[in-house]
Amino acid sequence: MSKMKNTIDPAVNYLLPLAKKAGIETVWDRFAAMKPQCGFGELGVCCRICWKGPCRIDPFGNGPQRGVCGADANTIVARNLARMIAGGAASHSDHGRHIALTLLEVGEGHAPAYRIKDEQKLRSIAEKLNLAPADKDIRQVAKEVALASLEDYSRQNYSIPCNWTKSTMTAERVDKLLDLGIMPHNIDAVIAEIMARTHVGCDADAANILLGGLKGALADYNGMCLSTELSDVLFGTPEPVVTTANLGVLKEDAVNIAVHGHNPLLSEIVCDVALKMNEEAKKAGAKEGINIVGICCTGNEVMMRRGIPLATNYLSQEMAIITGAVDAMVVDVQCIMPAITGVAECFHTEIITTMPVNKITGATHIEFREDSAIDSARKIVELAIDAFKRRDRRKVNIPDYKQTAIAGFSAEAIMAALSKIDAKDPLKPLIDNIINGNIQGIALFAGCNNPRTTHDNNFMTIAKELAKNNVLILATGCGAGTFAKNGLMTQEATEAYAGDSLKAVLTTIGKAAGLNGPLPLVLHMGSCVDNSRAVNVAVTIANKLGVDLDKLPLVASAPEFMSEKAVAIGTWAVALGLPTHIGIVPQIMGSSVVVEFLTEKAKDLLGGYFIVETDPKQAAAKLVAAIKERRKGLGI
Ligand code: BF8
């Protein structure tokens, strides 16, 4: 059997042998050392929620079929899955809480580092939330929108839906979620409810636990949605911007600062401050001043709003340090490998943690608070400049790989491009082309990378197949990172890979929008929380057609996912009615009830369902089949 490749990223392939030679351990080494991974864990039948255990169910039926308390495989698998969803929802919604609290501070005039950058968006959000903003002062509107968002974390009345989910769905979907009892009323309460119902001796009915999980996933959607929209208010709504991606964006003659993590509250201020400290960097010998680059979702945030180059995505974050050219890696929350401090010990790189609840042993901690954001950012940039002075030039190996990437396709940017074709009815050209089959459907790629499969390969293979089949492609998160690094966010990629009718549509829109050629093959919608942007586009189309989301030829794919957040996202995609592909075998296979619920029963209840397929070509075929089935349902 041939050995699976670690990655198809040329920059990583350049650096891995160098890491090996220098004895630096990477994620792929640790993954290899972990094999064989625990079979019980892989099936999800290991229970560790009380200390009578750990218990595990024998999947072959010879050993124990119940844990010490009597929980069977179905209960155990469902509980484990629901708890993962709660973890994901907690992460996204905590991010959203910080943004909402900051907007409140801005409204009250207490956060000098921040301001309202997109007033029009703020007013349109206030309209959607029924806050009658027309005659109000903009700071008052900010306060009211922030408070309406924070209400989604505090409401105690179970029968009132969360403001954001209710106001961003089709009416039919709202009714369906209410009917099923899975409409969230309060993000924090729903997460707490999952933890409570999965405590030992509580909910033992797998289907009921999964309904709780679906509610948790919708709470996740609510938190993501408000994170995205309020970030646009504070930092600007993305518009298409041309930039570059992959590790070749690092510069030998600059102080390279990598911003890594998720929340733009930190990265935006670091970028602002760094711009003002360019001269200090030059005085320290960096001819090109300061070069900020992004990693993971923070990378997406600053790429789409500022055109800052993307260095890399999740799985290759250590590689950025192994170039020897990163002077500081500034991190906030989520998806930061604890391994980075160990790698940084081999170089001069400062790893700077910034959040009180996210510290890493071996890192320098500079606390970042919204009220003193500029001071903290200044200290961070000063540390980076100091580190640059210590850089060992003999250890610098910047791979000569980078690609052009056109990023920043917010829902608003897509509508603006379409309005160049039909100003009165911007959606018409898109809908007409979906109905006439020039665009067969829309696929949203999301989620992480995972060493269980070749880094970036599933994303690239499936996207090229779908494009060939005239499917319009949207991307977020580390999937977006894959496409940016590997050249699919370019006009050339449209020429090379799009089917003829898709190419013609992308060319018409691109030319009308002044791009002098087609739109890129993959439209970059942003970070993981920005998956809500794709929902925004889908709901607009659904409302226009007068159908619910589960009728649209719209699919989602997380072909290399790994995080609890991705589990939550995939689950809400199903709850919203989307066929949702995952390319990694989920840790649920030990329960036939859970598998059947998520791949079949969910379809009856919600219209959406999971498709599990690890082979990327097969996955593409299944997604195309799901799109065709939807088209047939619509009679198109
Ligand atoms: O939120 S795609 S590895 S960085 S979890 Fe993490 Fe996964 Fe990347 Fe962004 Ni999303």
From TrEMBL:
Binding site for [4Fe-4S] cluster 2: C47, C50, C55, C69
Residue sites binding [Ni-4Fe-4S] cluster per the record: H262, C297, C335, C448, C478, C528
GO term, biological process aspect, one: response to hydrogen peroxide
Binding residue positions for [4Fe-4S] cluster 1: C38, C46
The protein's name: Carbon monoxide dehydrogenase
A GO molecular-function descriptor: nickel cation binding
One Pfam family cited in the UniProt record for this chain: Prismane
